[in-house]
Write a structure and sequence with these properties.
With 449 residues, the chain is mainly alpha-helical. The protein has one domain: Glycosyltransferase, CATH 1.50.10. It contains 17 helices and two strands. The chain has a two-stranded antiparallel ribbon. Strand 1 and strand 2 form a beta hairpin. The two termini are 33 Å apart.
C-alpha cells in the first residue's frame, strides 16, 4: 500500500509553495456574553476588505473571523499563568524524562529545547513579544535559552541538544527539539524588524536549525530518529522548513518537497486508507500531518477554480479534476500537483475530525494535543469554513478537561503538564493568529502551460 501511496504523492511538483504554520501576531478579540460552546459568535464585520489574496479581489469573508467565547478567554489566562510559573532558573522549560513520567513538578525536571519552544510559541501567541507584553521577560529568557542551545550544538549535529530520553524525544523522535526550535525561531524572526538587536542572531540560529533538519532527512522525506509516533516529528520538521523558507532561511527546495510529499503520502485519497506504520498505529497522528502539509495547495486550487469560474473559463458546477484545472489555464504538471494535494486534504481533514478518531478527549497524550493543533491550523491556512466548527468543538472539549490549577496533562505517552499545557494553549488561542495564518496561506500560482 505504501508504495502505491508514494507513487501518488510523487506527482506533486517541486513548484509547490509551502504553507506556513505560524508567525504569531496577536489580534484584538471581543469576549462574547455567554460562556458555553453551543455556538461561536461571529466577530463584527469590518468595513471593506479584510484580507487580500492573489486573485480574490474582495479578500476574505469577514465571517471567517470568530469572537472568542468568554469561557475560552478565562481558560487561556489560567493556562498562561500556570506556564509562567513553570519556568526554570535557566529560562527553559522541561517535560521530564521518559523513564520518570511520575515526576510532574515542572521545577523537578531538566529543561529541554522542545518543551521550551512550545511554551515560547504559546506566550507569543498570547500577545507578548521580546520587547512588550505582560510576559516579555519570560519570553526573552526562553529565547536566550534556545539561542544558546543552538549556538553550543556540535558542528554537523542533527539536533541542538545532547540531552536524551526526554518524554518528547521518546514519543515523537530523537530530533524533535531542532524542529520545534526552528519553528519558534521562524515565528520570532517574523516579529523582529531589521534593526532589532536579536534579529541577526536569531536568523543565524534559524539557518543552523534548517541545516540540521536537512542533514537529518531520510531519502523518503521523513526525519531520522523516529520515536513512538515519528510521523509527528517529520510533520513538524516539514512545517519548520516551510516557515523558515518564508523568512528567507537557506532551505533547499528539494528537501522541502520531500518533506511535504512524505506527509501527503501517508494518506491515500483514492482508497481512503492511512499509513500508520510510523504513527504508532494511530490514525489521528498520520492524517493530521497529511492535512497540514496539503492545506496550502488545497487552498491554491480553490482560488484557481474560483477565479476561473468568475472569468467563465469553466462551468459553475465543474468538478475538481486535473482536466478542470487545465481548462482554468493551469499547466498539466501543476494541475496534477494541485489535484493530488486537494484530494488528500479533503479526505484527510474529514478523518482527522471524525468522532472515532478524536475520541481520546479525556484520555489524551501530548501527541493528541499536537495533532489537534495541526488540524486546526490546517483548516485556517486552507481558508476552510469548516474551521469554525472545529474551533467550537475543540475549544469546548479542551476547557472541559482543564485541570483546576489551569494546566493540562497527558494520560498516556507524553504526560508532561508543561508540554500539554503549552500545546493546549496554542490550540485555544489560534483565534489570536487567524489573520496572519490566513495571510500566510495566500499563495501565488502559475497558469503557464
Amino acid at each position: 500500500m505504501r508504495k502505491h501511496v508514494f507513487v501518488i504523492a510523487a506527482i506533486a511538483s517541486t513548484a509547490g509553495i509551502a504553507a506556513l504554520l505560524v508567525s504569531f501576531r496577536p489580534t484584538s478579540r471581543t469576549p462574547i456574553a455567554h460562556s458555553d460552546h453551543k455556538e461561536c459568535c461571529e466577530a463584527p464585520k469590518p468595513k471593506g476588505c479584510v484580507f487580500m489574496t492573489v486573485y480574490e479581489g474582495e479578500g476574505l469573508d469577514s465571517s471567517f473571523v470568530l469572537a472568542t467565547p468568554a469561557k475560552v478567554l478565562q481558560s487561556e489566562q489560567r493556562a498562561l499563568q500556570w506556564l509562567v510559573g513553570a519556568q526554570a532558573s535557566d529560562g527553559g522549560y522541561g517535560a521530564g524524562s521518559h523513564s520518570r513520567q511520575d515526576i510532574t513538578d515542572p521545577h523537578a525536571v531538566s529543561t529541554d529545547p522542545a518543551t521550551t519552544a512550545m511554551v515560547a510559541m504559546a506566550i507569543m501567541r498570547m500577545g507578548s513579544t521580546l520587547d512588550q507584553g505582560p510576559h516579555a521577560q519570560q519570553l526573552s529568557r526562553a529565547t536566550e535559552y534556545l539561542l544558546k542551545q543552538v549556538e553550543s550544538a556540535p558542528k554537523n549535529a542533527i539536533n541542538i541538544t545532547q540531552l536524551q530520553g526526554t518524554q518528547i524525544q521518546a514519543k515523537l523522535g530523537a530530533n524533535i527539539d531542532v524542529a520545534l526550535t526552528a519553528q519558534f525561531l521562524s515565528n520570532l524572526v517574523a516579529k523582529l524588524n531589521g534593526q532589532h538587536p536579536k534579529r541577526l542572531r536569531a536568523m543565524r540560529a534559524l539557518n543552523t536549525c534548517v541545516d540540521m533538519i536537512q542533514r537529518g532527512q531520510n531519502s523518503d522525506g521523513s526525519q531520522r530518529g523516529d520515536g513512538w509516533a515519528g510521523v509527528l516529528q517529520s510533520s513538524f520538521a516539514a512545517t519548520a522548513l516551510e516557515s523558515a523558507k518564508s523568512q528567507g532561511a537557506n532551505v533547499d527546495d528539494e528537501s522541502l518537497k520531500l518533506a511535504r510529499d512524505y506527509q501527503k503520502g501517508n494518506f491515500d485519497a483514492n482508497k481512503g486508507t492511512v499509513a500508520t506504520e510510523r504513527a504508532a498505529g494511530i490514525t489521528l497522528y498520520a492524517v493530521s500531518g497529511s492535512t497540514r502539509n496539503s492545506a496550502a495547495e488545497a487552498r491554491e486550487l480553490n482560488e484557481v477554480v474560483i477565479q476561473a469560474k468568475k472569468e467563465g473559463k469553466i462551468k459553475k458546477d465543474a468538478p475538481v479534476t486535473v482536466k478542470t484545472l487545465e481548462d482554468a489555464g493551469v499547466s498539466r504538471s501543476e494541475a496534477e500537483r494541485l489535484n493530488t494535494a486537494y484530494q488528500v486534504y479533503e479526505a484527510a481533514k474529514q478523518q482527522a475530525q471524525a468522532d472515532n478518531v478524536i475520541s481520546g478527549f479525556g484520555n489524551n497524550g501530548g501527541e493528541e494535543f499536537l495533532s489537534f493543533l495541526q488540524t486546526g491550523e490546517s483548516l485556517v491556512i486552507a481558508k476552510d469554513q469548516g474551521w469554525k466548527n472545529w474551533y467550537q468543538q475543540t475549544t469546548g472539549r479542551l476547557t472541559s478537561i482543564q485541570n483546576q490549577d489551569g494546566s493540562w496533562n497527558g494520560h498516556h505517552c507524553i504526560t508532561s503538564p508543561v508540554f500539554c499545557t503549552a500545546t493546549s494553549l496554542l490550540i485555544l488561542s489560534i483565534n489570536n493568529d487567524i489573520e496572519h495564518l490566513v495571510a500566510q496561506g495566500a499563495v501565488k500560482y502559475s497558469t503557464k502551460k
